[in-house]
Design brief:
Helices cover about 95% and strands about 0% of the residues. The protein has about 110 residues and is mainly alpha-helical. The chain is rod-shaped.
Length: about 110
């Protein structure tokens, strides 16, 4: 039985050695994975921060675009009023011109 006991002890020692190696490999791989996860976490945080900055910038651009749209609407209104005023002035100038022409014709006929 001593031989059997020695065989069992040897097998237990072999299994312990294999388990120690596996534990070391597992620890090494776990450390590599943790390093990778840490790097990924840092990259994700950096991306999230950049996205926050971009979102803020987009909000600023949207606000500027809204203000520009409002200004363009006001400018369109002003230009439309100017066009209406110009048309009214044109009609008024035409009336004045016709009046002056009629006055000139009447003076030419000795009516003035």
């Amino acid at each position: 039985m001593t031989q059997d006991k020695e065989n069992i002890e040897q097998r237990v020692a072999d299994i312990e050695a294999r388990l120690d190696r596996m534990n070391g490999e597992f620890s090494d791989r776990t450390a590599i994975l943790l390093d990778g996860l840490l790097a990924l976490s840092q990259q994700t945080t950096a991306i999230a921060n950049r996205m926050d900055q971009l979102t803020d910038r987009m909000d600023q651009l949207t606000d500027r675009m809204d203000r520009l749209t409002d200004r363009m609407d006001r400018l369109t209104d002003v230009v439309a009023r100017l066009a209406q005023n110009a048309e009214a002035d044109k009609v008024e100038f035409r009336r004045i011109w016709e009046y002056l022409e009629s006055q000139q014709r009447n003076q030419g006929n000795g009516h003035g």
